[in-house]
DNA sequence: TCATTTACATACGCGAATGCACGCATGTTA
DNA sequence: TAACATGCGTGCATTCGCGTATGTAAATGA
């Protein structure tokens, strides 16, 4: 049976992703400071030995989780920024897609870490800040463009608006924690409000 | 000089509020797990001895901070719910007042603690949850009333809307961290959006 | 088949931070 | 002013979780 006899690379990869997933859930629930590596390893079906064999320590593990989330998020949500032509449509599409993305249990990880490391000087905090700043830098010109085109009314500076937009979409989705139709619906509403748009015409946005 | 010769009760009260204020700032910046009592006491001008004389421990201190914030918040923001007659006006007034309230440095404490203890079973977490649930229970009927009067359009269930409203106002204000006119302006926009209202007529809401 | 490497478990040392014991000095009451 | 209470500082014990060193079984490669 090849089922029992696995290659080393395969074992390594399986262990790594199992630990990564457990760590992501743990970070989302408990945050960084309260994350106990023993629990993470146990929940993944291993001991701390396996964890330390794959990651150099707690910090490295958290950074790997952040990178992993960023990757999947970009593939699932972030790409919309480039694929949707109209800036306003793109912003609203991201809000709804983010709600869908966050229906899994990893949802809160980024927000938890961001609030935990806000105003600190920690590598993990810097990694999160960097992602967030990149998104702000990506959405700020979209808002500016929408206002120039006249599809968005004037309002507070685009950067401030972008920051509020991101924080809001994140918070709404977490507050509703996957209550299926309403998370996307309310994320959409909040985004429209922040951008100064009137309510959506009618019927819940699919 | 009576300045040097203070009564015991006075000393106690001064120490207590100094420690409480330091703890509030510390919780807002570092959260509960990363809060070091030695630093709190030092920042207040004391040592841990004084702290343990006034509070039974870290948990008790955090609970006292939560109670203190709830008190000041209710006196400054929460009262609007009862003082403003129209439900929709009340909701928007609270959003703006919350932004103003959060311009002080204690702002993030409640949100930090709430995210830190979300999904845990910790006394501090329960205290925060209780406050939050009380607010949800207070705002849910306001939304329902607005919809019945026709001053609010229909939308997701009132409770979900109330939760999203609270989380949003909180998040927007923290994301903008006291950037003076825009925090209130964007909190107002987000609240309007969530409630399904059209944008405010014109001119930044004072 | 045997040497070497790899995946993982187990055991230990260590620092950090909490909580509590005790001690001193300043108020309070008689 | 003497006896006591209170605010507060200091030192100690304990806990907890991280990081590392060491051991073992399985896989690779000759």
From TrEMBL, chains A, B:
DNA-binding region listed in the record: 36-55
Segments forming domain HTH tetR-type: 13-73
Organism: Bailinhaonella thermotolerans
Protein name: TetR/AcrR family transcriptional regulator
InterPro entries named among the record's database cross-references: Homeodomain-like_sf, HTH_TetR, Tet_transcr_reg_TetR-rel_C_sf
Gene Ontology molecular function: DNA binding
Keyword annotations from UniProtKB, A to Z: DNA-binding, Transcription, Transcription regulation
Signal peptide annotation: none
Keyword S-adenosyl-L-methionine: no
